[in-house]
Each structure stands twice: as C-alpha cells, then as structure tokens.
Amino acid sequence: MSDRRVVVTGLGLVCALGENTEQCWSAAVNGVTGIREVSSVNTEGCYANVGAEVLIPSEKLSGEDYDRSSLLCIKAAGEALEDAGYKITSENSDRIGVIMGNCVGGAVSIDKYYSEKKKGCENPHDIYRMTASALSNNVAFHYGMNGVTANIVNACAAGTISIAYAADLIRAGKADAFAAGGSDAFSSLAFAGFHALHALDADSCSPFNRSGGITLGEGAGVLIIESYESAKARGAEIYCEILGSGVSSDAHHITAPRPDGEGQMLAINRAVANSGLKPADLDYINAHGTGTAKNDEAEFLSLHTIFDENDHLSVSSTKSMTGHCLGAAGSIEAVLTVMAVKENIIPPTIGYAPENLETLKEKAGNIDFVPNTKREKTVNFAASNSFAFGGNNASVVFAKNPHEIPDRTNSEKIYVTGIGELIGKPNVEITSDDYKQHGIKMAFYRKLDRFSQLQLISGVRALADAGITVSDENARDIGIVIGTADGPLTEIVNFQKNVIENGTAGGSAFSFPNTVYNAAGGYLSIFAGIKGYNVTNANSIQAGLQSVCEAADVMRNGDAKVMIASGTDERTEITDYLYSLSKDKIELGEGSVALVLETESEADSRGAKKLAEVAGWACAHKAVEFGTLKGSESALEKAVNDAVSAAGITVSEVSAVCGFANGNPDVDTLEKDVLGNIFGNTPVYHIKDTIGEARAASGAAQAAQAARLLADSGNDYRYVLAASFGAGGAYSAVVFKRV
Predict the structure, then answer these.
(1) 324 an active-site residue?
(2) 414-485+539-737: what fold?
(3) What 3-state class would DSSP assign to 735?
C-alpha cells in the first residue's frame, strides 16, 4: 500500500484570520471573524463595504517585486516548507514541484498599471505581473524548486484541484513532493465584479443561514504533499493522508450552480469512492458554503442526498470567518480541514442568531452544521469541497490514518482521434459559418468573449472530427483540459479599465464572468454537455502541450475515457505590448487547437479513426526568473528524455521533432542547442512561421502536427516528438507513435 500513500507534512496559511497557520487555526476554532470594513479598495457608491483582507502590506511580504498574489503565496509556501522540515538541495530540487490555484491572476497589478497609466506614470513591468502563469514559477524561483509546475485557474475550485492533481502526480511517480495550494489577492476587479452581479452580502456573509451573498477575502494556503516513502526517508512528521479526489462539470450555467446538485454530487461521490470509503464513513466536511442563496441551496441538497444516512457527520463553512478567497479558498479550507483531522476539532459556521437555530434544525436533518461553536470529536475522515464559476466542482478526502485506496490506473493505450483548429496570424477571423455549422446559436455565442469563442469552436470541431456525440450515457466520462499562457486578457483589461473610469460600483455584470480563466472551459462544457473532469492550466507558452500531458495523466489515472486537450490564446493590444517588452520582437498569432484523446477500448468501441498513439509524455521545470529562459536548458533536456523513456524507446528511434522556435534568438538558440545535442540530424519541423507565436495554441498545434505527420502515409515516420517551452523554465514533451 505504501506506493499509493500520499501524505501531508507541512502547512502554510495567511488570510484575514492571521499571519500563519497557528493564528488562523486558533481564530477559526474559536469563531473569530476576519471580516471587517474594506480598506484596500474604494467602495464609494457600493452597497457593500466589508471584506476579509490580510493586514500585511505587500512590501513586507517578500523582498521580490511581484504581484500581491505571488507574495502571499510565497509567504504561505515558506511556512509550509519550514513546518515540513523540507530542505531543498541540489539533489532533491527537481523532485519537488509547485502547483498553485488562482482565479484572475495578477489583478492588483492590473489595477495598478491602468490606474497609473491614466495618470501617465505607468510601470511597464506591471504587465509581467498580470498573468496567472507567473504564480507557481515565482514560488519555485524563490525557493529553488525545480519540479513540475502548474497554475490551476479554475476560479474558486482551483485550490482544491491543485491539491488533487499534485497527489495524483505523486502516485504516478512523477514527483516526490509538491508545494500545492492556492493564492488570490483582494482586488477592485473581483470586488467590482461580484458587486455588479449583486452577489455580495451587505453584512458579513452568513452561509447555510441568511445566505444573502458572499464576502470577499484574500490569502494563500499551501500544503507540502509527499509520497509516504519521501516523508519516511526524511523522518518527517505526518499530519494526515490524502486519499481520493473528484473533479466534475455542471454543464449548466457560467455563474450559477445546477439546482439539482448533479455536478457537485458527482465530484463528491467520486472523491469518496476513489478513497475506498462510503458516505457513512466521513466525520467532517469543510463545505464550499459561500453564503449565496443558490449555492447554499444546491449544496444543502447535495449533502442531504449523499449523507442523510450518516448519523455522525459535521459540516461547516469557514468562509463565515475567512471570507471567500477565490482561487485560494479551497487550499485555505484544506489547511483548516487537515488541522481538524489532526486536532479532532471542528471549526464552526458563525453568524447564527438564536432565532436562526430553529430554522437550521429543520433544514439540517442528521447533519450537524456546527453553528457558532466548535465541536470536539474524533475526525478519522474529512473532505473539503469547492465549487466554482464555469460549473467546476472539486472534492478531496483526508484521513487520520493509512487507508487502502483502490488503484484505478488504466494502462490502456491512448490515441488522438480528433483535431479541431482555429489558429493563425496576426488574428483569426471568426464568421457566422464557424458557429452555425456546429449548431451554436447566436443567443449563446454572443455571451462569450473572444477567448471563449476560440475555445468553443476548436473544441466542438475536435469532437466532430472524432465523431463523438456527447450524451447522457457518456457525458461523465468525457473531460477537458485547457492550457493558456495569458487567458482572457482582453476581457480582464477592459473590465478593469471600466472600473477605473467609472468606479468600483460601475463594474459590468455582463463581462465579469468572462474575466475568469476557466470561463472558456465552462462554456465548452455547457454547450457540449460535458460533465467530467474540467481543468484550465495557465502555464505560459507550453501550456497547450502540457494540456496533452495532463489529459493523458487524467486518463491513466482512470478519471476519464475521453479527454479534450486544448491550447488557447488570443492576440490583443495588451499581449502585443507584453511581448514587445523583449528587445527581440516575435510575430504573434492567436487561436485555439483542441485534440481529442481516447482510451483504446473507447476508440475501438466506436470504430474511431486513430491518428496517432500518445506513447510517452513528461513535464519538467528549472526555476529561472519569469520571462526568461537562460539557465533552464537542463529542464528541456529532462522533459524530452523523460518522454522518450516513458514511450519505451531511445532517442535514436524518434523520426522527427515538432519544435518551438519562434524567431526570438534566445528561444531559437536554446532549441537548436538542446534538441541538436539530443537528436543530432533528426528533422525538426517548425510551424510558427505560418501561425505566428500563438503561445498555448502553438503548443497544441505542434501536437496536432505530430499526429498528422504520423497519420500521413507519405512518410515512414514511426515516432514523432513535440516539445514546447514556457517563460520561467517550464517545458513539456510528448512522444506520438504511428498506429
């Protein structure tokens, strides 16, 4: 069983309740709130003016000049590493990675840049701090962690998904440990957005009670997650075990949860089953518990449907004290859940007046919602649940003691069976024919920003190319992974400019839902009816190829039979400026490329055409400053060699390479030197002359190019490798095999 065991050995936490885990835990179990009058955002004209802010100025968080979200995360990660006693050395640095959750990237830096631009004193370097792609890299660079990185940007479920993904990668043997969690900073963008939706509570939020709206918070929660063997070898103290997890899509609405709770229940039930447990086994659930009427009603229904036969379950929402910390929410709540398992204490949901308790009693049934006062009880098994915009749901289960979990590894071959593309330079033209041919009605299409439009069209084209029709029978077995470098920057920037011009109270309710990075995946799931795994990863240019790696990991883990792996990025005024900061100009493109991956049995059952086999894949990272590559050559070499090894071949058997050169001398030289050293005279194909540097879309396009080369009878290629790079030293490589 030890090779399946994943444990928590360190905790780091900063939020409105305190500057470290001890302070935050003490406040939470004693029902002390961190919600107070907002000071960092101008709330003039707003109906709400309370929030849960961290009372530490950014300049006192770290020595680096990063966005506040990165600074909060670095602080929490430092505490977690120290708590775990994890000393990073040259011998172990490439075996500990960083996976972090986030909602809207460097929102504080976006506000700062455009506010100062209005006054004519903007700092161009704030642009580098805008993207969520920088978060994990900044943490890794600060501490010298050279393992796999990822930035999970699934809004309010991101922190939970990051923990689940880290545990899966450790079980797959791809790392010994991760700093996993999430971070988000209090921003005018988020406050104005939720205010525009009228989703804020004018008073402190009151989950499972008054349910008048959310209270925004900020902070970071980080867990050091390790294989049991790594923790044992270090003599580390173990807080608890991480068992199973579940991730799902509502396929319902971009902001509202399904009223019937189907998606929530799918994630929770998968997490429980993947843990080798039954619903009656759980002792505590840290609920999503936002305090909005629709969310609380759907979660009440989900919890009762699954757990009504459990006569000892306690449920609480710590958001009643921490506020809703968006991309950090799941990880902050995971830290508090781990502490509940360790200390056998359940933190309460505060805010109940005496007259509310009778109403709660009627709604609660067998479930103890822990009103106002902590519970002291043995906690053997606990779960933390997170639900998000885009209809994303996630749940992860923790255990006090070792517990046998089912090995769901699916060792079947994985094939590319469909490709959908919408890519080019300088921009892609989208016409009415592009959506009409797939039955996309204008009423739906006009809700989408350009980033989501690109993704939707490539996704449905890929499904059509694969001959897949999503139905009630297969919807839960189909998943989505989207990679992006820069996300929906047009929508984010335009929303922020409007807030600066018209005040926090002037935010647009129409555009705000499209400012979250995972909106594109949400719209694709809603239109296509996909209810399975759904994750968006913002990890620079290589994120499109990394999506293929992550999708294959999900399938190997037994969590899906079919996956859409995609890379998407748009070209905008702000991306032009971002990439023009380099003295070596590159020609940008834009677009979205999606590949359908299927297990062999699924493809055979449909008689699907097989373009190529996904034979081996790997990601690697060498921590260098974000925006640079120099010094990270060893990570590209490692990604390529690991992918080749995973395919069970040698480098001499690779027939061709789909490379990533883009006209930047630093990028082109790195590729030429490293790939030339590995492959010698093996032909290297380049597509960016044609499509431009479309960033994540380029990475996915390289994968599509490799698959098509192998499907082409005009050559005798046996194996083709695609490799891609990311700013800050992140690399992915995939080996495709002829069918």
Answers:
(1) yes
(2) Peroxisomal Thiolase; Chain A, domain 1 (3.40.47)
(3) strand
